[in-house]
Write a structure and sequence with these properties.
Elements lengths: L13 H4 L4 E7 L3 E6 L3 E5 L6 H15 L9 E5 L3 E6 L9 E6 L8 H6 L5 H12 L4 E5 L5 H9 L8 E5 L6 H4 L5 E5 L6 H10 L4 E7 L2 H12 L3 E6 L7 H8 L6 H11 L2 E10 L4 E14 L5 E9 L5 E3 L4 H9 L23 H14 L24 E4 L6 E4 L18 E5 L2 E5 L16 E3 L8 E5 L11 E5 L6 H6 L6 E4 L8
């Protein structure tokens, strides 16, 4: 089972070590044995053969195996192997007898989608959403109490990373064992100790060019700085922390800092770089009559346009079973789109705008499309129906331009000019003109490519050379912007036979004000 501890005689404790349902074994108070299992939670068992004498024998064997000392001078003993982590407290400190805790850390992932859904660990919508967040390289921190299953959830989320993405795990006690779970992947397992601190290991980790950095737990100021330095350098993290809810993760990280750093500045940096926070709770469910672990809260972190830290509760479940959900913000959707993960605005179909969200295969389809985009394959799109609309039937009123000068006001409804001679293709039967006293209104097809105003050259007469307020420069439609052939003309307030002139329009011209005092709105 454990090569380093194979020579240790655990005696009657082997019964619990071989039971895969049991995760923790606790011994204290002169013979009290308490177990924690995946199904029953914490419960007591009566084993008289497990006593202080047996536990002292096991402790001395572990000390010899690890090359350590366990006595009054060294009253604490930590020992670990590939699948066991043990902690002993000498009776000189634990006055009611030796105390021991054994935690099993097997190199396997206990969770899978079917188990998560059947045991009501999370809903299918939430499961699919979190999977897309991992594929989109979101930084995720899982919070919860001791024994709530934080590490198991991190291991499950890590299993959703792409196979070609390098992972480096940094732990002070070995629990993840991803290198053993996936022996064919590019995974490096690093362990901190008295020689190599979090900071030292992190510097080396950066030089290994990882895509993902997995920190087993954020429990010190050094670990907090390691998390912030990792995510601010462009790497992606999965980690755990002790917090009472997902929305309090940034403040919990701040409380672990030993320096007096500005609160708003620190929270803004965490909200900027950590996208998702998850709170997991373990408790005995009377409804299910068993120990229940489930996700209670999922929170999105972001900063607004004013660089203020904000949070959005995506999922929240009360103990009475009431669930509240909110769609992710535009900030998170934009972040995911950078990783080629495209989710609709109504991600959870809260407004009925995304009916496929209720379909169990909807996120699977999204993942399939994302994989095709990443691989460069063509994604077939349904053919859209094309409707042919005659150009003459497309009309739109343009804004009215008022020109203030000494002459009566002239309001010209303008339309947009393109490099092609749009006016030359118009038929007189397709144009409607209306002339009133001092006002000319013309409707014509609109081409949304320019904002130049069109007026027939025939309606403009040559202007005197004194360049009065009612003078404009008329430019011929030369695409080279050559204005050498410009003409100086004057707008006459009394337009003559406009109906005949409008029907004879062929050129397209642009007028520009010469006098800087004349304003064209």
């Amino acid at each position: 089972m454990n090569s380093i501890f194979d020579q240790i005689d655990f005696g009657p404790i082997n019964e619990f070590l071989e039971d895969e349902d049991i995760t923790d074994i606790s011994y204290s108070n002169g013979g009290q044995v308490w177990l924690k299992s995946l199904t029953k939670g914490v419960f007591k068992v009566e084993r008289p053969e497990i006593n202080n004498t047996l536990m002292e024998k096991v402790a001395f064997q572990c000390a010899n195996t690890m090359g350590k000392t366990f006595n009054m001078a060294h009253p604490f003993l930590d020992s670990e192997s590939a699948e066991l982590r043990m902690n002993f407290v000498h009776e000189s400190i634990a006055t009611n007898g030796i105390a021991c805790v054994i935690r099993k850390t097997p190199a396997k992932i206990r969770l899978n989608k079917e188990k998560l859904l059947s045991e009501e660990y999370m809903t299918e919508k939430l499961h699919n959403f979190l999977e897309q967040c991992v594929l989109g390289h979101c930084n995720i921190i899982v919070s919860g109490e001791t024994g709530s299953g934080k590490t198991e959830l991190v291991k499950y989320l890590a299993s959703k990373t792409k196979e070609n993405e390098k992972i480096i795990s940094i732990e002070d006690t070995l629990e993840l064992h991803l290198d053993r779970i996936y022996p064919n992947r590019d995974i490096v397992a690093m362990k901190t100790n008295n020689i190599a601190s979090y900071s030292d290991v992190l510097v080396t980790c950066m030089r290994q060019n990882p895509i993902w950095i997995l920190l087993s737990e954020v429990r010190s100021a050094e670990a907090v700085l390691a998390v912030r330095n990792s995510i601010s350098s462009g790497h992606h993290i999965l980690s755990t922390i002790h917090a009472d809810k997902a929305s309090s993760i940034p403040m919990r990280m701040y409380s672990l800092l030993e320096s007096s750093q500005d609160t708003d500045q620190f929270l803004s940096s965490i909200h900027r770089y950590v996208q998702i926070g998850i709170y997991v709770k373990g408790y005995f469910s009377k409804k299910l009559n068993r120990f229940q672990r489930e996700i209670i809260e999922v929170c999105e972190f972001y900063v607004d346009d004013d660089n203020k830290p904000k949070s959005n509760i995506l999922y929240k479940k009360t103990l009475d079973g009431q669930v509240t959900m909110n769609n992710p913000t535009r900030q998170l959707l934009d972040y995911l789109s950078i990783g080629n993960i495209y989710l609709p605005e109504d991600t959870f179909n809260l407004h009925g705008e995304n009916p496929e969200a209720d379909n169990p295969s909807s996120f699977a389809k999204t993942a399939e499309v994302n994989d095709m985009l990443n691989s460069g394959e063509n994604v077939e799109q349904p053919e859209a129906e094309v409707q042919t609309v005659e150009q003459s039937s497309i009309t739109e009123e343009a804004p009215t331009v008022e020109i203030e000068n000494s002459a009566p006001n002239i309001e010209v409804n303008s339309f947009v000019q393109t490099p092609d001679n749009v006016m030359a293709n118009l038929n007189s039967q397709d144009m409607n003109s209306q002339v009133e006293q001092g006002e000319l209104t013309t409707e014509a097809p609109v081409q949304p490519q320019s904002n130049d105003f069109i007026i027939p050259i025939e309606d403009l007469t040559a202007a005197p050379e004194n360049n009065a307020n009612n003078e404009f420069q008329v430019l011929q439609p030369d695409l080279t912007n050559n204005t050498e052939n410009s003409e100086i003309v004057t707008l006459e307030p009394n337009i003559g036979d406009t109906q005949n002139k409008v029907n004879d329009i062929t050129p397209v011209s642009r007028i520009e004000p010469i006098n800087s005092g004349t304003e064209v709105l």
